[in-house]
Amino acid sequence: MSFRRDTITKPIFSWARGVLPAMSDTEREALEAGDVWWDADLFTGDPDWSKLLKVPQARLTDEERAFLGGPVDELCAMLDEWKIFWEWRDLPQDVWHFVKREKFFGMIIPKEFGGLGFSPYAHSEVVRKISTRSIAAAVTVMVPNSLGPGELLMRFGTREQQERWLPRLADGRDIPCFGLTSPEAGSDAASMVDTGIVCKGEFEGREVVGLRLNWHKRYITLGPVATLLGLAFKAYDPDRLVGDREELGITVALIPTNLPGVEIGQRHLPSMQVFQNGPNWGRDVFIPLDYVIGGKERLGQGWKMLMTALAAGRGISLPSLSAAGAAYAARTTGAYARIREQFGISISKFEGVEEPLARINATAYQLDAARRLTCAALNAGIHPAVISGIMKLHATERMRTAIDDAMDIHGGKAVIDGPQNYLGNLHRAVPVGITVEGANILTRNLIVFGQGAIRAHPYLLDEMNALADSDRERGLSAFDKAFWKHVGHSFRTLFRAFGRSWTFGAFAPAPDAGDATPFYRQLSRYSAAFALCADMALLTLGGALKRKEMLSARFGDILSELYLLSAALKRWQDESRQKEDFAALEWCMATGFRTIENRLAEILANLPNRFVAGFLRLVVQPFGARVLGPSDRVVHQCASLVLEPSAARERLTPDLARVDDDGGFARLERAFELVASTDAIARRLRAAQIRDWKEAVAKGVITQAEGEQLAVAREAVTKVIEVDDFAPEALSPIYKKTANVHQFFQELGEQRAAS
Predict the structure, then answer these.
(1) Which residues pair with 202 in a beta bridge?
(2) 182-216: string of b/e by CB count within 10 Å (b at 16+)?
């Protein structure tokens, strides 16, 4: 071993130390935050499917189910989204009081501190249901339970801090927000110029060592109404009052917003969404060191703390909202396509409608599968950093596609705003999800593969740590051990990838999963191809790979597809392999396989080392990209999942907020049920080529009772197809001076003529 280390490994070690790019503290802290999980299995090139299938399903306790069926349903009944965003521009006061009283802000806070002590899955289910009723209410509830003072206090706070603040957060006495984004630092949080200077000052009548803070934050959700601000800033200790370093690094602290120097700004209006959001400033705000989350010992550890806690927002809140949006789009669009007729037939029969409807349905199936699997990991105490990034990116992007498809199928019904439009505000909200908690462009191009390649790879992080070791001999020994394991792994991956690619995965490992077994084989094949290509890219490009953002994005897309498709397979297995749902699974697999093969082809076409690219093409894609996507049969079957009342439709769109009012969604549900129940009657009229039900009764085609049923169904459909209109003065204050809009314009014309 010493001969190998000193003779063979040492020159490689010296070369690698010379070319390894320097890693900043923030980069290292981000890499070390959170956990690896199933993503690490996928990165091996030989995933252990039994491990995935043994993951316990995320389930609700009786108490959590009761909360969903009690306070959550009661809250949904209190919400009127049209009035919230058009008339009130806020949640009404009775809603604010209700969410505080019922401890919606304290769902994740343990019972010992007065919270509900709910699991991540329960948190996800609550956000998911509220999202289908009101975006503003969902965001208001999700923020205190994700990235905010509560999560950070639970994970990193001192016992004294927990006992002081958590009960107040749980019962709503304090409303939290978290200030991270600055005008100078959005995605690049390390560039923030917000500062905290360690100094002595007076606080509550006594002189203490503390921090004098100056900051400017914006886009802060709940900021305009917050009483407790979690703040990220860069801490400095110029007088060495707490240690021997001047630059301490990013730090997080609690700032009561009533402290002198805190200024709460006016509200932002993000994409016409009216959840509370706005800027704030601090000018020479002094806090004692025990307001730093975790106390003095946590000075400079804020970035790692934030990256660890970010798993909640990225892995729970936004994926829950996105999964809800896709399921809502599937249910409403399927119902609307079923009841809406053009050219004498339901538009659901048009293949041009079937294609986007199938895409919506399969997206709803896949996003909820991934949400559940991620929540299962979080329930088990795992905080998967890379997977959380995948979830935030792809959940919000796929929601965008699903909502766009829903808008296209609904046409003018979803374009004309008003109380009866159940899709318009959701469509406007999509860009917010795309932008917040890490912009999707950055996440796709830099984070998913950039972080995943180091964290999830079996040996790369060990090699990097060895190369960065200040003790050269110790680093050499550690590098020798990791490097040769890496070499062995690479050769095994090469042979796996070659064998599985040339045999089209026919003999790749797979569990006995019935009709889904071939899908596991293909994922085993693609996992090996991905692992080999990633290793070769890292070998030939080294640190330059992180600057090849388009290559990194393509690798990230493959890793993401491997995870999302794994989740879909896991769901199908967990739900006892429902045959009716298989079309949705087939659609997901065919579309995901097409993406993987296309991304592999794009990587091989653009890898700078053309010799290596040619070699890899021979090994992993000898016949080119061959998967074309879902067949027309699969599209037809997948689209049909939501066109009739069925158990499959309920599984695809479970637990949406349903309020029995005269709103657009309730009208649609009633019309759908009535149309489905009178379908046989309508078919007899069509066969007789009769449109008027009274004529059909007179001719004996249907009975009087059947004719009246059909009339009720048609009236319900008419009410759904209707769109809102408004008096001019209801839309613009300029018309309030006159009751007659025509008179208004006539007078305006006369004034112009006179001038």
Answers:
(1) 207
(2) beebbeebbebebebbbeeeebeeeeebbbbbbbb
Q: Given the structure tokens 């000075």, which residue do they identify?
A: 299
Residue 279 has φ and ψ, to the nearest 5°, of -90, 165
**Separation of alpha carbons 552 and 537, rounded Å:** 10
CB 281 within 8 A of CB 405: no
Whether 178 and 283 have beta carbons less than 8 Å apart is answered as: no
Helix, strand and coil content of the chain, in percent to the nearest 5, comes to: 65, 10, 25
CB-side exposure of 713: number of CA atoms within 13 Å? 21
Residue 232, strand partner residues: 252
- Find, among 218, 270, 275, the residue nearest to 89 by Cα: 275
Residue 639 burial (10 A CB sphere; 0-12, 13-18, 19+)? buried
From the candidates 64, 102, 151, 437, give the one annotated as an active-site residue: 437
Q: Is 342 helix (H, G, I), strand (E, B) or coil?
A: strand
Burial 35-50, CB ≥16 within 10 A → b, else e = bbbbbbbbbbbbbebe
Cβ burial, residue 692 (10 Å; 0-12/13-18/19+): exposed
Q: What distance in Å separates the CA atoms of residue 618 and residue 612, rounded to the nearest whole number? A: 10
In terms of C-beta density within 10 A (0-12 exposed, 13-18 middle, 19 or more buried), how is residue 403 classed? buried
Rounded distance, CA 384 to CA 439, Å?
A: 19
Nearest Cα to 401, choosing from 370, 361, 435, 439?
A: 361
- Identity (one letter) of the amino acid at 231? L
Q: Spell out where 289-413 has E strands.
A: 341-342, 345-346
Q: Could you tell me which residues come within 8 angstroms of residue 189 by beta carbon, excluding any fewer than 6 positions away? A: 26, 180, 181, 232, 250, 303, 306
Determine how β-strand 195-203 pairs with β-strand 206-221. Answer: antiparallel
Phi, psi for 725 (deg, rounded to 5): -135, 165
CB 452 within 8 A of CB 559: yes
Cα–Cα distance for residue pair 660/335, rounded to 1 Å: 17
3-state secondary structure 405-426: HHHHHHCHHHHCCCCCCCCHHH
| Residues 720 and 667: beta-carbon distance below 8 Å | yes
Q: Which two tokens stand for residue 670?
A: 């009633």
Active site (annotated) includes residue 437: yes
Q: Which two tokens stand for residue 183?
A: 């005008």
Is the separation of the CB atoms in 59 and 110 below 8 Å? no
Give SS3 for 508.
coil
| Chain centre distance of CA 224 | 25
pLDDT tens string 444-484: 888 888 888 888 888 888 888 888 888 888 988 888 898 88
Beta strand pairing call for 228-236 and 176-179: parallel
Summarize pLDDT for 646-683 with one digit per residue, the tens. 999 999 999 999 988 889 999 999 999 999 999 999 99
Q: Cα–Cα distances in Å, from 687 out to 638, 691, 702, 704?
A: 27, 10, 12, 18
Q: Which pLDDT band holds residue 421 (cuts at 50, 70, 90)?
A: very high
Q: What is the pTM of this model?
A: 0.94
Q: How far is CA 500 from CA 33, 49, 557, 591, in A?
A: 34, 16, 21, 20
